[in-house]
Amino acid sequence: MRKVLPGIAAFAFAAGSASAADIAARPYTKAPPIAQVYNWTGFYIGGNAGYGWSQVKHEDLVPGFGGFWTSGTVSPLGPTQTIKPEGAVYGGQIGYNWQSANWVFGLEGQFNGADLKRTDTSIFFTVTDRLSAKIDSFATVTGRVGYAFNNWLPYIKGGYAGANLKTTNFDIFGTHLDNSAWRSGYVVGAGLEYGFAGNWSVGVEYNYLDFGSKSFTGRNLTAIGGTFGAENFSDNLRISTITGRINYRFGGPVVARY
User: Fold this and answer.
1) What CA–CA distance (Å, rounded) separates 87 from 118?
2) 25, 133, 191, 227: which has the fewest Cβ within 10 Å?
3) CA-CA distance, 85 to 216, in Å (whole number)?
4) Would you state the pLDDT for residue 12?
5) Which helix (H) or strand (E) holds 7?
6) Across residues 116-143, what is the average pLDDT?
7) Hey, what domains does the chain have and what are their CATH numbers?
8) Please, which residues have CB within 8 angstroms of residue 136's CB and are 6 or more apart in sequence?
9) pTM above 0.70, yes or no
10) Which residue has the higher pLDDT, 170 or 17?
11) How big is the CA angle at 191 (ends 186 and 196), to the nearest 5 degrees?
């Protein structure tokens, strides 16, 4: 019996060693990479700057009068003078985005200063007869809808627009009529935004603002202090802008997707 037990133990050890040698080592596998998905949800604030151009159709509504006859009009002898102010635009925006799957919905308010201005002179009275128009500020409140391709976001927008338009016309009698008013209308636009460096994003945006026509009346004063008569005009205003934008969003920049 004493000789049998050691023999059994030796046999078991040898068999176990052979079995272990036959088993291949477990291969090493790396953990799958974690995809980083950009998240557009959150409040944001930013700035913008660019270029704007506009069209003001300034119509003389008094029968028998022919406008200001400047070279900017296709038909210079008609009652409507078209003047096209242009220049720099600059300002800021604040808004909120909410992302559901790839769709991004947002609400944004924007206020801009502007230096859109132009003065045209008469083709007949180049020294005295002229018309000037200037837009010095505008604002929008819009809804936005976009479709996110990770950190790229193309979108469209639309809503309320307001702008401050000032027109001044001078004539050969030394009179002038100024009108400055806040105009209300609508805006539609589109843009492309790119998210980078965590919560920052940059983009480019085009907007078209339409304010329709609005009439106004006034009484001119002559150079000698008398009255020349009542004036009645209508201004139709349209503005286009293209701007570069930069935003900082308050919220998580990315989420993990396994």
Assistant:
1) 9
2) 25
3) 20
4) 46
5) helix 4-22
6) 89
7) 42-250 (2.40.160.20)
8) 113, 114, 115, 116, 164, 166
9) yes
10) 170
11) 140
